Amino acid sequence: MEICRREDKLEISELDPFLAELLRQIPASANPEGTPTAEQRLFSPPAGPREREICAEWKLYVQPELRRLFRTATETVAADLEQLSGNEKTFANRTLRIPAKHADAWLSALNQARLVIAAKYNFTDGELCDHYRSPIGSRRDLSLFQVNFYGFLQEFILREVIDCPGKNSD
Amino acid sequence: MLAAASAGRDPATLFELEAAYVSISSMSWQPRRGSAEVAQSERSEGAISISNQNANPATVEAPVIEQEARSEEDLDLPWQVVVHNDPVNLMSYVTMVFQRVFGYPREKAERHMLEVHHKGRSILWSGMRERAELYVQQLHGYLLLATLEKIG
Predict the structure, then answer these.
(1) What is the pLDDT of residues A123-138, one digit of tens each?
(2) Residues of B in contact with A151 (CB under 8 A)
(3) What is this model's ipTM?
(4) CATH fold for the domain made of B73-152
(5) Residues of A in Cβ contact (< 8 Å) with B140
(6) What Å distances lie between residue A131 and A134, A153, B52, B80, B149, CA to CA?
(7) From the list B21, B142, B147, which residue is nearest A47 (CB)?
(8) Where are the domains of chain B?
(9) Of A67, A78, A119, B31, which has the most beta carbons under 10 Å away?
């Protein structure tokens, strides 16, 4: 896999089918439905339990807005990921081009997915720092790999698009 | 269900087969240092003034005291915006969020990020409740664990 900035796009090329599938899984992975711990993490309370009024108002007025915000981001990412669908050969390497103006949506969707997966599996700090664990061992290892792969993409987007908005490729 | 769903295969098998393709050894996870800075913006609290425009000395009635949802004490007391540690959010991402939300320069944003990382929490801002609520809402929009707390 290669990832680079080309003018106003991020280009992820030489994507093998495994990593392409991990990318395709971002919108679905970001969905906390059916996992209360993930739902709690994405929509955490704004204050301590003694501040009942604040928490009640928050649930009523702010949470729907946050849901809309998160959904908009995952929809943008899902639309970009359409590039990876189609009738190409299953094992052909793919290229994904992400418009720089979608960087914030990608950061959000990747973060949602990482938080939801981490909440589902209750990863420890030690596991989250283990960037070299093979994804083959178990479903848990695969999910940990997914979290770290998404984190790697976040780092790249932060460095190439957010920190250097006007940067062009060589 | 991962890749295999579309191909009609058992996902575990597919991942075992395709994991051989994986190579991300060049991934870097060190917190970065950069030169970009966001200028700290001036932020001021909105002033609150209270006046009784309908007062007429000839027809003054006994005042009716209603309990408001937010007491004066609530509005007057300073509140603080606290960000709590979260092992999933990237350090560089948290730094960027602090820069964006509070307009802090990178160095200050990094100091707060490191405080969150090492001490478990950091007070990012303190002031009037409404502004604090707005900041917490923005931080939640970036998926950070943030709360507002009454000071004292």
Answers:
(1) 888 888 776 767 677 8
(2) 29, 90
(3) 0.91
(4) Ribosomal Protein L30; Chain: A, (3.30.1390)
(5) 43-44, 46, 62, 66
(6) 9, 13, 64, 35, 36
(7) B147
(8) 73-152
(9) A119
